[in-house]
Amino acid sequence: MDPKFWNKPICFEAASSQEWRIVNSTAEAALILMNQWPLASGKKLVKAKKVCIKVLEGKRSVDKARVAFMKAAKEARIPVEG
Q1: Which of 40, 54, 56 is nearest to 72 (CA)?
Q2: Looking at the DSSP assignment, which residues form a beta bridge with residue 25?
Q3: Strands across the sheet with 80-81, in order?
Q4: Contacting residues for 55 by C-beta, under 8 A, at least 6 apart
Q5: Domains: count for the chain
Q6: Mind listing the pLDDT tens digit of every residue in the chain (82 residues)?
Q7: What pTM did the predictor assign?
Q8: Gene3D superfamilies attached here (predicted)?
Q9: 80-81 and 5-13 as β-strands: parallel, antiparallel, unpaired?
Q10: What separation in angstroms does the CA of 79 have from each of 21, 28, 54?
């Protein structure tokens, strides 16, 4: 599967380890959103998951996933850079 790499990575502070992590692709973002996100629910989280899936299916542009991930991070009050 094509991971749908982003033009610019996002750095975020992982809640579990309080270390900064780098996300480079939609596939990586989807795994984080689904398995490691500190919130179980949230409007932006749900949308980000859906957008990532659409991007991986080739139905949306890669930039949409990156923006959706950033919005979900803001909703979860996760510090991000990128």
Answers
A1: 40
A2: 5
A3: 20-25, 5-13, 80-81
A4: 4, 26, 61, 62, 64, 65
A5: 1
A6: 799 999 999 999 987 777 899 999 999 999 999 999 988 899 999 999 999 999 999 999 999 999 999 999 999 999 999 8
A7: 0.93
A8: 6.10.250.730
A9: antiparallel
A10: 11, 18, 25
